[in-house]
User: Which sequence fits this backbone?
């Protein structure tokens, strides 16, 4: 497991796991089976092994079932009642919960490392590389794959309010990132990860 540096220890993982799997026949992505367990458990493990000591998990579709079936011990669970409005609402919920957290839980975090539950091809090494890009409250970094921006993405605390305000629909932070393209530190991860999504029935073959 990657041991966090002083700066890295102030980075909290924010896992967006609220999707309802509309193109998967309404099967919540968090509960898809991967290596014999719910997919959300794999995503949490990756964040922890990559150096995030604290992980916030944003739930939406079938939230109570996810709580009952997945082992999310030690995580901070955030409910997003507006999950059907898209990823933007989940990103807002996660960042707002982190900003409002008490010291000793997520309080004191100076950056959020945001990942998606349906990208099992992205492992701990990619998380560790992006996490290491944290420098200050203004940090803005993202994994890249062959030069193309992807996840995970790191947001310094000084940017959370503006990112949350701009997050709408399924675009998440895309509008903010596009507007601040020149400020993003791209961290190449194409040699250690594959950024595919589990979106359709055909994609299920990528799960183990």
Assistant:
């Amino acid at each position: 497991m990657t041991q966090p540096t002083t700066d890295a220890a102030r980075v909290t993982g924010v896992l967006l796991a609220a999707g309802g799997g509309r193109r998967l026949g309404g099967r919540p992505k968090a509960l898809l089976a991967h290596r014999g367990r719910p997919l959300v458990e794999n995503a949490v493990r990756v964040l922890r092994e990559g150096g995030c000591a604290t992980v916030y998990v944003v739930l939406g579709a079938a939230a109570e079932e996810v709580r009952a079936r997945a082992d999310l011990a030690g995580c901070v669970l955030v409910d997003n009642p507006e999950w059907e409005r898209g990823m933007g609402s989940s990103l807002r919920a996660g960042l707002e919960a982190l900003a409002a957290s008490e010291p000793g839980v997520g309080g004191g975090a100076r950056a959020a490392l945001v990942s998606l539950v349906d990208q099992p091809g992205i492992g701990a090494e990619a998380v560790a590389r992006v996490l290491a890009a944290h420098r200050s409250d203004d940090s803005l970094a993202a994994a890249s794959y062959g030069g193309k921006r992807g996840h995970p993405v790191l947001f310094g605390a000084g940017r959370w309010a503006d990112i949350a305000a701009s997050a709408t629909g399924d675009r998440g932070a895309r509008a903010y990132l596009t507007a601040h393209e020149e400020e993003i530190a791209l961290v190449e991860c194409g040699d250690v990860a594959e950024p595919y999504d589990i979106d359709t029935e055909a994609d299920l073959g990528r799960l183990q």
Summary: The longest strand covers residues 148-156. The beta strands are 11-17, 33-34, 37-38, 55-59, 76-79, 111-116, 140-145, 148-156, 185-188. Confidence is low (pLDDT under 50) at residues 1-6. DSSP finds six helices and nine strands in the chain.
